[in-house]
Design a protein that fits this description.
Helix content: over 70%
Keywords: Membrane, Transmembrane, Transmembrane helix
Organism: Actinomadura sediminis
Number of strands: 0
Protein name: Type II secretion system protein
Length: about 300
């Protein structure tokens, strides 16, 4: 009964997805404009072709085409994928490659169904297809969510590093303001001091703001929205409110940097406490195993007597 219900649910979901794929909904004006802007950005940011082997070039081209089709499929239905885009932006990866990986990994898992059936037949477990299909289906489901978990972990680590860079950037801006510079000059001068990918992103955002005629705090706010970093958005709001008062913004930036450092220290202390607790649990398991090892011969002698 349970197998029949599960099979009916899978067939119903497949039919629903087939109907949605054959008769897609008409995208709105906002979705079309977003798709046009995304296609224009892809054309501008496309890297020049390098000298690679023909096999790798064919594989990369197929993956790029598949990723592009999947991106257009999502954009046609108005799926923004904002959290995924923010994670990909901070890890400097493309949406096309991510969606292609999410599609190809489950497909590769399902391709192993005949091999699993042949292996079961070789072991003498019968030639039934039901168990291999369930096994490969579970692996396909796991492989479908594996890129998301990997992306979340990598993005979380990168955001932690970026927050550390933002704290140092705030200190540098406060020191430049104390030296008598204005807020825009202090932001640009502080961004030119440090190195690394985080400071490079801040410096690039400020440089693009100068070219496009935007204010530096608007550029920092846009970067915070793109990378989903709340500290940059708060900094942009604070700079927009008190950009004319250098002394007040200097105190505010110093207080923000101090609060970010204290929060980072508290997070590090919490992680250290969790690791110490895990080490304590491992030591308890080791002691329990040692006690079992000591008591097992005596227990077996008593039981055999």
């Amino acid at each position: 009964m349970t197998g029949a219900l599960a099979a009916g649910a899978v067939v119903g979901a497949g039919l629903y997805l087939l109907v949605r794929a054959l008769f897609p909904a008409r995208p709105g004006l906002a979705a079309r404009m977003a798709a046009l802007d995304a296609a224009r950005r892809r054309d501008l940011d496309a890297p020049p072709p390098g000298r690679i082997s023909p096999t790798l070039e064919r594989v990369g081209g197929f993956r790029a085409r598949l990723g592009g089709e999947l991106v257009r499929f999502c954009e046609a239905r108005g799926w923004r994928l904002r959290s995924v885009r923010a994670d990909l932006a901070i890890t400097e990866r493309s949406l096309e490659a991510f969606l292609a990986t999410k599609f190809l990994l489950p497909a590769a898992a399902l391709l192993f169904v005949p091999l699993v059936v042949a292996y079961f037949a070789l072991l003498g477990l019968g030639t039934s297809v039901q168990v291999p299909v369930w096994i490969c289906g579970l692996f396909a489901l796991l492989f479908f969510f594996f890129p998301d978990m990997q992306l979340k972990q990598e993005a979380q680590a990168r955001r932690q590093d970026f927050r550390h860079v933002v704290g140092a950037f705030l200190d540098l801006v406060a020191m430049n303001l104390a030296g008598g510079r204005g807020v825009p000059e202090a932001l640009v001068s502080a961004a030119n001091v440090g190195e690394g990918w985080g400071m490079h992103r801040i410096r690039e955002a400020l440089g693009n703001a100068r070219i496009t005629g935007r204010t530096p705090w608007q550029a920092l706010g846009g970067l915070g929205e793109e990378l989903d970093v709340a500290e940059l958005r708060d900094l942009a709001g604070a700079l927009a409110l008190v950009a004319d008062d250098g002394a007040q913004i200097r105190k505010s930036l110093a207080a923000r940097a101090a609060s970010m450092r204290s929060r980072e220290l508290s997070e590090l202390e919490g992680k250290a406490g969790e690791r110490s607790q895990s080490m304590l649990v491992a030591q308890l398991f080791l002691c329990a195993g040692f006690l079992v090892f000591l008591a097992y011969p005596a227990l077996m002698r008593v039981l055999s007597a």
